[in-house]
Amino acid sequence: MNLLLQDIRYGLRSFRKNPGFTLTAVAALALGIGGTTAIFSVVNTVLLQPLPYPDAGRIVALGLSSPQGTGYGLAVPEFVAMEQATKSIESFAAYDFGGPGINLTGDHPEQLQGIHVSAGYFQVFGAPMALGRAFSAGEDRPHGPNVVVISNGLWRSHFGGDPGLVGKTISLGGDPYVVIGVLGRSFSPDPPADLWLPLQADPNSTDQAHYLVGAALLRPAATPDQAKAELKLAADRFGRKFPGALGAQGSFTAAPLREVQVSGARQALLILFGAVGLVLLIACANVANLLLARATIRRREIAIRAAMGAGRGRIVRQLLTESVLLALAGGVLGLGIGFAGVRALLAISPGNIPRIGVQGSAVSLDGRVLGFTLLVSLLTGIVFGLIPAFNASRSDLNLTLKESGARAGTGIRQNKARSILVVTEMALAVILLVGAALLIRTFVAMRNVDPGFDPHNVLTMQMSLLGARFEKTAGVTQMVRDAEQRVGGIPGVMAVTATEAIPLGGGFGLPFNIEGRPTGKSPYTGGAGWDPVSPGFFSVYRIPLRRGRLFSDLDDAAAPGVVIINEAMAGQYWPKGDPVGTQITIGKGVGPEFNEPPREIVGVVANIRDNGLNHDPGPIMYVPLAQVNDGVIALNNRFVPVTWAVRTQTQPFSLSAQIQEQLRVVSGGLPVAHIQSMDQVVSTSTASTNFNMTLLSIFAAVALLLAAIGIYGLMAYSVQQRTQEIGIRMALGAGSKDVRKMVVRQGMLLALSGVVLGGACALGLSRFLASMLFGVTARDPATFAAVAAALTLVALAATYVPAVRATRVDPMVALRYE
To answer: Which helix (H) or strand (E) segment is 298 a member of?
Structure first.
């Protein structure tokens, strides 16, 4: 221990005597460790921490498997069939996707986030009750009582933490609901909610629409594989009851809930974590190069210590102690950088990273992150300190003591360790630059994609239509027409529409049959997106008409059923014909609500990229909102909000207050929520790509800077050490141009070696980015060539400065050193 303390004190004194070296090394390490800590804190929250439920390890997500993949949307009959698997599963929960929002009505109407859940929901997720109780099985039956459980936050913010609230009635959508329970403060559900209402699903339902999410709590000794086997048997029974509902080779399945929740973010986070790890390695290589240079200067000091009896192990320990001290100092500073980096990272995050909480509130520098930072610091100190320590301890004692203080002539071959480190830095920089360049090209390609509609000057807002007034189509249609008149009369408003799905927002799909065309083995001709819209939809979004006509106010409930399809659907199902005039039946057999007569295709419109700018347009069917039957309207209103879209002549938010006021008037005082422009919707659709691109570009820029500093430092040091040799060359007739070429050639040989090595590694690693790319391949030759050229130019600039300095060596001064 005394020897260790002695080594630490000696190292600290040495650092104080060389502040420039110390600050440079600590800054480089802090940058690498800080970035690694920032990304790890998010990885820790999203991928490593358990779900915030008492029995999180036993909770599985219920889904539908098929040869095309696994989906986690369920229909009521599917969930009812799954509930038969009780040997390995203790309890089941079904809940919707978050619904259209629940209107808390009264003096100050407000739209809250509500979820319809089955009675087993609270048992599956171990929801603690602060007051009252959860739903009973009887309350979760069709036509059950109006009861509600509220969140702890809503109880405190809206009801002042009233302990007598349980048993009282509140108004939701104009209907009275009895508050039967208040959840505990520690409950953190996903999705978050303010209210939980009984699902009250009919166990005898035949409705095959996938409006629900399912979860289950395994029995203590059961495994997910056992649950999957039992669910497969339930799927076989379901298939016999509903032939064709699951499709060919379809089945029920289950997977750990945590894996399902983070599956969409796992790959991107691991790629970013790997990228920042490469930055840390480059920083380590830079500091190792600094220590190698410093060790050369300290050769006489180390030789004297060896002559006085210090063994090789003692010298290595002293040098490793110094490197670990540097790393710990970098780690402390890096921890601060990491904390600030997390805040900056979450400020630009796309908002779709699971489990990080509202505005990243769940991400913190906890004990695991602190331990990770300490471990990384220690390992970093050992990694970058080993090579300089062993290199310095192998020096020839007699030769070193005989040397004068002069600079000995040393070339690139005598600096193999430093050369290898520089080549490594260049190779790692190439890998990061290729990744960043591919994502930049992806982002540019997505921004240049024609979405198929005009997003500018369009304002959107959502409204929940829960309540008796809107249970029938006539009530909804009348409100929409009143809104079109009142909102359309506002100066600056050009067009108004109501829809259930905005472009780029996704939506529901339904199967269809083409009248008179055989379907073969499948019960349906095909499937397509399904979007009920009011007549102004195509004007608001400026979607061009290709054939036929658009909807009008005459396409109401009394008129024959009509439908408009997009070009993708026309091209897929009528590749050589004109679909206008053809009749199709939509959703037959999906459920009793969707049993309707055939509709005539009256028009074909241009494609829009409804599922994202990086996906090709799929088939879509548009139907008049006024022609949707009462059963579908009631079902949709429960699970899907209506979205208002308004095209304006001016900046859309300038008319937001007037539009909201008119919508409140026509709806009887209902609030609106999720107000955003379509420009914001488009920006959000590319936010994830932008986020990944931004971070990887920052890491690549830092890597490029560190690599340039590394090669500059090596060549500058080489020129300094070779002053005598260069002086002799110039004395013998070598010109400035010859010396400059010599230094540049040696530096560029290292740089090009790193570029070639890095390019080869990038070719293999770029495949991990393939799923994140659009408009460019993972092995795009132009990208690799551009990165190689850019890094070569940077290396040339970093090498050229020391080369010019070498030409200024005075031969007479250089020869006096000996």
So the answer is: none
